[in-house]
Design goal:
heterodimer; A: mainly beta; four-stranded antiparallel beta sheet; 1 helix; globular; B: alpha+beta; Glutaredoxin; six-stranded mixed beta sheet
Chain lengths: 143, 188
């Protein structure tokens, strides 16, 4: 019986969800020397908040966390130093809002290509994700 | 000093605007290097105009994508022949003819009736003034010796009718495609 309990505990440990899950990732294609944005859903499965403090990618000269927002009828953008993902919550990076900015691309990013990017969290460490280049979110069903 | 002449229709209309742009001709150039007189050249056609800069990572690609979706839907329904799509740059110092061509190509845009326009900065500034677009460069920095900057800008798609009258303005990035398609249908 004890052995069974131990095996069950091990199974739970083995299949436990990762602390941070990054899904529905995508970025828009653009040319060398230009800029593009990465979008994603970041889910924190842990009991404590975690903080995205950097993103690493060899695709661009500068990579920053940004936010688009509207003020006085104009669209503006600002850099964000870090992004807190609350415990058991999902933060969505989506067009017109939060995004990862790839500034001055080192190469063309063509539609259909996939490139790896590392999201760096204070607690969960670096979470690497392959990001497809597309003109729409993976969750877009129409068009 | 450019002044926008306004013609007010006396009858009810489906459109909030009826502003005559016929007095204006802006000499621009498209993504193939061909001269374009905007908007005069497109008289007789409905014009869906967006205002962009190609280094924009978020809002302008949304605007262009929304215009592209409208174009695809009209083409699919056989309604696209008398409609022209123009995306006019307010960043002509970076948006060269070659860059506009590449921008269109990377998005697999059907360029049959989709023009990307650039030109002399004074002229594009005048276009923006007449079309009520504000675009202010901000957040400039040096990235490995290269200047990098973005714009605070109006988020806009404009609808111009066959007579060269501005008829409606939409949010570019949040445009409702069905609304634009319905409005184009009303103008036909």
């Amino acid at each position: 019986m004890t052995t069974l309990k131990l095996l069950a505990a091990l199974f739970v440990i083995t299949v436990a969800a990762p602390k941070i899950e990054i899904t529905e990732v995508w970025m828009r294609p653009n040319g060398e020397g230009m800029n593009t944005a990465v979008f994603a859903k970041i889910k924190n499965n842990s009991d404590k908040p975690d903080t995205l403090f950097a993103v690493e990618s060899g695709l661009a000269k500068v990579v920053e966390i940004h936010e688009s927002y509207e003020k006085d009828g104009k669209m503006k953008m600002r850099k964000i130093d870090y992004l807190v993902v609350p415990a058991k919550k999902t933060v969505e990076m989506k067009p017109g809002g939060l995004h990862i900015m790839l500034i001055k691309l080192k190469q063309d990013i063509k539609k259909g290509e996939k490139h790896e990017i590392g999201f760096k969290f204070r607690k969960a460490g670096t979470v690497k994700v392959k990001i497809p280049a597309s003109d729409k979110s993976p969750s877009t069903k129409n068009h | 000093m450019l002044l926008l002449s306004t013609f007010q229709s006396g009858c009810k209309s489906d459109f909030e605007l009826n502003e005559n742009l016929k007095g204006f001709t802006f000499k621009l150039v498209d993504q193939d290097g061909k001269p374009v007189d905007f908007p005069t050249q497109f008289e007789g056609k409905i014009v869906v105009a967006g205002f962009i800069f190609t280094h924009c990572p978020d809002i302008c690609p949304l605007t262009v994508n929304n215009m592209q979706l409208v174009q695809k839907e009209l083409t699919k329904n056989g309604d696209g022949d008398d409609v022209v799509f123009v995306a006019i740059s307010f960043d002509p110092e970076r948006d060269s003819v070659a860059l506009l061509k590449k921008f269109a190509g990377m998005r697999e845009i059907d360029e049959t009736n989709f023009r990307f326009l650039t030109g002399d900065k004074k002229i594009t500034d005048s276009v923006m003034s007449v079309m009520r677009i504000v675009a202010v460069p901000e957040d400039s920095s040096l990235v490995e010796g290269d200047i990098s900057y973005f714009f605070t800008h109006t988020d806009r798609i404009s609808l111009i009718d066959q007579r060269g009258f501005l008829r409606k303005e939409y949010s570019g990035s949040k445009a409702n495609m069905e609304e634009i398609i319905n409005d184009i249908g009303k103008l036909k």
